[in-house]
Amino acid sequence: MDFSASLSLVAPEIVLSLGGLLLLLCAAWMGDKASRAISIAAVIVIGAAAALTIPVLCGGAMGAGTFAFGGQMRVDAFAAFAKLLIYVSGATCLMVAPRFFDRWGAMRAEYPVLVLFAVLGMGIMVSAGDLLTLYIGLEMNSLAAYVLAAFLRVDGRSAEAGLKYFVLGALASGILLYGMSLTYGFTGSTSFDVIRAALAGDISTGALIGLIFVLAGLAFKISAVPFHMWTPDVYEGSPTPVTMFFATAPKVAAMALTMRVALDAFGAQAAAWQQIVVFVSLASIVIGALGAIGQDNIKRLLAFSSINNVGFILVGLAAATPEGASAMLVYLAIYVAMSVGSFVAVLMLRDANGDYVESISDLAGLSRTKPLIAWCLLLIMLSLAGIPPLFGFWGKLVVFQAAVDAGMIAIAAVAIAASVIGAFYYLKVGKVMFFDEPADKVAGGNDWAHWALLILSTAFISPLGYLLTGWLGELADKAATALFLVT
Description:
Elements: H1 3-9, H2 11-30, H3 35-58, E1 67-68, E2 73-74, H4 77-102, H5 110-126, H6 131-149, H7 156-187, H8 192-198, H9 205-221, H10 231-237, H11 240-265, H12 270-293, H13 298-319, H14 322-347, H15 366-369, H16 371-384, H17 391-405, H18 409-435, H19 448-461, H20 469-484
Antiparallel strand pairs: 1-2
Helix pairs in contact: 2-3, 2-5, 3-4, 3-5, 4-5, 4-11, 4-14, 4-20, 5-6, 5-11, 6-7, 6-11, 7-9, 7-10, 9-11, 9-12, 10-11, 10-13, 11-13, 11-14, 12-13, 12-18, 13-14, 13-17, 13-18, 14-16, 14-17, 14-19, 14-20, 16-18, 16-19, 17-18
């Protein structure tokens, strides 16, 4: 494939790169007074990248024709599915940010630029066909994310979150890099295709250690147990729009990257990593559920909920089948909608002075003071718990079905039983909002963007979402097929 063909394949990344550089110049010349205009322009840039990505997914692009720059990047349907979820997450994060930061006079022009470059890095991550490309995309995303976590400089919690994220993120990057070095040393290449071929026979001890280190580094990025310790503190301390971003876009990118590495590069040695994934999956489900029970801060509760949901998604990876990969993508799409809705609802919880309410106890009686927000938040919580007929139930169902079809009935049974634990803390939020005496803390008004996102998210996870199961399942199947196609 010639260079021009490769450039046409990575057109979304080129749009994001040029758009980010242009908006960076605008931010430098026009200053913070142009932050809203730059945010709108950033959403338009992301929309343009999404428009270039949609045909790749709908066409089910796969095979050698999707390889760019000698296989360094794979612009297939699988990457397109993940990119679209990332773009939606990035755009929603930009839409809700100005109102939040204006409360402290902290909306700066570089915020949308950082989000754009983070989205660019994540796009490279999910398209990676080589360990070097993987690392470049990962670090581009991480460097922007560290700054975003500490963006609210007037809040000490934000600075603490940024520092913790940076230190632990650097540790995880070191672990990942060491694993990549071992993998290169024992396979002789950084290309996923060559690594897969080299590991087709018996795996050596050194290569196995490299595999373990790579998966450990990626486990940090998806906040899976036992590399989850940073998540509650970073989620609580980061500005809420940034927390929403962390809970959606990087989660999708890291999970898609983990799928590509495990099922493609290490696909010939599925038996070597399946038991690791099974342990991480079940541990994340249980610890995520138990950790959330004692939380009073809604953002910390959602952090443990994120860990819990990662565990359920990894059940599909443990199956190591196209059906499992398709189920994971369906779950990720539903999870993004639930996370966006939950954090938008949190952003709408403000007191009479305009300060944001994060304590669950302060939501007491919300159904009588702000009934629409309370009902939307309740439906989202129940959907996160996987209670039918809400759409979150469908995500868990397809993942468990994939595990059962792969012969992992015991794992599916344990995961189903553990999901009952998680239902407790979701129901606790509903109990506080609907049965406790009103605390009269939430009193502030909200703009149309927040209401639109909340209502759309709630409609998607409501029983109306089942109307999309055929369409969503078809797209997920195309993406999974592209991932499993070996050339």
